[in-house]
Amino acid sequence: MKRYVLDTYSIIAYLEGESSGKGLxxxxxxxxxxxxxxFLSVVNWGEVYYITLREGGKERAEIYRSIIDKYPIEVxxxxxxxxxxxxxxxxxxxxxYADAYAAGLAEMKKAELVTGDKEFKQVVNELKIVWLA
Length: 133
Fold this sequence. Notes:
α1 (8-15) crosses α3 (42-56). 53% of the residues lie in helices and 17% in strands. It is globular and about 35 Å long. The chain has one domain (7-131): 5'-nuclease (Rossmann fold, 3-Layer(aba) Sandwich). By secondary structure, the protein is an alpha/beta fold. The longest helix has 15 residues, at 42-56.
């Protein structure tokens, strides 16, 4: 079964109806049909919420949170193991801390990272990436 880690970029692009977000639709459909497993770091989950809250207000943030909750996405807490992996990515690459958690989770779960964020180009030799265009 395919395994995917969603980053903040992929979720916001999908929720905002951006053209790049359309690439997430078949992945979400596969997860609903139990043909794929989806993971999201709690740090990225929180980042989606705060960005939406800041840019669209509480009502939009809550709507987006409820949409995310309807999909079979396993939100993974930031335990010591994941935090150490994220710290490794943050120390060695120029990326946000939340992106480092997405990278660390992809490594931990041996999953493909779904993103359109160009920050991840620097880790293409370490992780499998599904690029949203």
